[in-house]
Amino acid sequence: MRNIKDISVKELHEYISSLGYEKYRTYQILGWIYKRKVSNFSEMTDIPKSLREKLEEDFELFSLTPVDKIKSVDNTTKLLFGTKDGEIIESVLIPSKDKLTLCISTQIGCRMGCKFCSTGMQGFKRNLKPSEIIDQYLLAAKIEGRSPTNIVIMGMGEPLDNWDNVRLAIKKLIDEKHCAISKRRITLSTVGIIPELKKLVSEFPELPIALSLNTGRSETRKKIMPIEKLHPMNKVLDVLKEKKRTRKILTIEYVLMDGINDSDEEIESLVNLIKVKNIKCKVNLIPFNEWENSPFKKPPEDRILRIQEKIISHGISTFIRKSRGSDILAACGQLRWKYLHDRR
Ligand code: SAH
Ligand code: SF4
């Protein structure tokens, strides 16, 4: 059965009209789904009962079912959802002073195979449908009792490798008649797949982008991120410099790994690359979050601080991302792995 969030407004209009109802019913239904976030069609009390019953017969309302909710000591909450085909996906809620950020997944597993990433090392199962991406937001809002103010597309999967579905989900997340989240509050994190990156930049020029660079050297990147061979960072950065985006600041994500990308030479290469490209950006240093059997380690605390100072000394804003929720394995794909592992 199709999820009602996987069809366009036009299709919903046509469906409603074909049943002999007026078009404004479409907008009432959208309001119930996306604004009031009802769990059943029967709760749509201003919709005629006959239409509610027809909707119930023809569509499902949620693609995901909440499975588990794990609160970390630092207030981060990990949400696990079950899909109709028995898979598990994860989202993370991160509260801060005046924000509630939700980190959402776009695929089950990932095809990119980054060596340091637990999701990447677990392989690829399938793409998430638009409804499964949107449901993470709607269900998180229901579970938390308030809607997330910000979304980061930074969970499991590479969003640009599932562009058609991610695009439809973003459209509904930002549309006034749907979730109505400001497009400046949705950040997409990617390794940079050039054709889809171009589409993203041209269709959503204001959407903040985070690029998982992890080094300033192509040679180092090839060793840890296979994507570098097909879509080299040099060309990826050129796409991000396009006119339409020039007023937007790019976030460069840099997962710090001991002995891999934390030497002075490595950091100098990063600074040089940013200068040569003359790109407006800020750097997000992410201390590597260790997972079982991973060959990498995070650098010592004092080195991480030195790296931050060094980059800042070149006039580039640099932040260390607190590894929040690491006590519940909040990093990319790690909890799903543990969940599936323990179930076996
Ligand atoms: N596929 C996208 C989005 C999901 S990964 C991307 O790669 O950007 C989100 C972020 O988690 C990326 O910046 C990635 O480099 C980082 N990451 C992956 N595994 C990690 C780990 N073990 N510790 C810290 N960060 C990690
Ligand atoms: Fe995929 Fe991102 Fe993990 Fe790389 S870091 S394997 S792109 S989820």
Keywords:
344 residues; alpha/beta; DNA polymerase, domain 1; TIM Barrel; 2 domains; ten-stranded mixed sheet; 20% strand; binds iron/sulfur cluster
3D structure, described in words:
This protein is of the alpha/beta class. The protein has 2 domains: 2-60, DNA polymerase, domain 1 (Orthogonal Bundle), CATH 1.10.150.530; 64-343, Aldolase class I (TIM Barrel), CATH 3.20.20. It is built from 13 helices and 14 strands. It has helices at residues 9-18, 24-35, 49-58, 118-122, 130-144, 163-174, 194-203, 218-224, 227-230, 233-240, 264-277, 301-312, 334-343, and strands spanning 2-3, 59-60, 64-71, 77-83, 88-95, 100-103, 107-109, 124-127, 150-153, 186-190, 209-212, 250-256, 281-287, 318-320. The strands form 3 sheets. Strands 3-4-5-6-9-10-11-12-13-14 form a 10-stranded mixed beta sheet, sandwiched between helices. The longest helix is centred in the middle third of the chain and has 15 residues, at 130-144. The chain is elongated, with a radius of gyration of 21 Å. The two termini are 29 Å apart. S-adenosyl-L-homocysteine (SAH) is lined by residues 116-118, 154, 158, 189-191, 212, 253, 255, 286, 288-289, 291, 331-332.
